[in-house]
Amino acid sequence: MERSPTCLQRPVRWGVGVAAMLLALAACSGSSGLQGDDAPVQPDLPGDPGNADLPDVPGDAALDTAPEAVADVAADACTPDCAGHSCGDDRCGGSCGACTAPHTTCDPVQGKCVTTCDWATEKPAAWGPAGHVSALQTLADATVVKATCFDYTGDGIGDNGFKAMAGQFNGPLFDAIGNGSLVLLFELAGVTDFDNTASFQLNGLLGASTTTPPATTGDFQVQEASYITGNCQPRYLLGGASIMARALAAGPSELHLSIPIEADLIFDATLIQVKAKGTLNPGAGADGVEMTDGVLSGVLTQQQWDSAIARLQAACDAAPAAAKPSFCSYLNAQPDFSWYDLHVNGDGTFSAKTKDLPGDALSVCFSFTLSKARVVGFAP
User: Domain tally for the chain?
Assistant: First the structure.
């Protein structure tokens, strides 16, 4: 089967890491015919994980159109969420507060007021040891998911509602990383002890290899888009990271996604309960770190998704008919509620979706491999 560039090449074009793939679901969901946990998963092929040249999953008649789901959509309710935030987006288009001197700018990642910086003179000039994401895929095998991914429902079993899309996204991810069009770096900021470090910040950076053709290890440059220029802090980070006996753990944190779709069109959402884990290989140092068993997980709530799509739709509606962004036509796709494998409880915890607990959140789980990387500066 020929890959559809409409749904499958978009993660490569946007190139903003794992999060970018979630937006492509808006266009793919209406015709995917996937049936949640009951949908068959397309197997990976050697050398090209998740190759999409496989049969489509049949049958869109069984989509989750239960009255509860329909009622939830009809209500179109949005509950502001400012827990732990003193400023920034309240997840419903409103604000959690304004910043005043001396902390005059809001860090949207942390939702806190921070001191501004002069990007031209105070931007980072040195970086800690880093690893290049040389392999990345969403885990599809149910047995591997249960044993490897993070557990969000408290039943001791790993969760990955996104596994149903593995056949469509792992192939393009493999290609993008292989040809260097998608370069993701994890920086272990300030780490010098790779056996045991009590606390540090794990930064996610977008970059490019300094060699031609692109290499998977060696020297890399980072893109300025990896940082918030108002406070000189990384745009994507996991706080509370630690290393114990070379086992790295990070999170849970929120990961605020501001993904440029086209000029002046931004997909803005937040992944919650983002966690990472893996074991650092021996030999880590200033020239970088290696890891072969990395896992990165998070949760995207339906409320976040709906709010992000609504903001995109508003931007599309406001654009002149002759100048509407090409992506606007995809916003008409009907959401496939079978994506959502989790139900958000009133106390903020999660349960597995059932007939009585309709799905309103999607667990996402990826495995990754790190090869040694050294950040040498900003990309021109």
Answer: 1
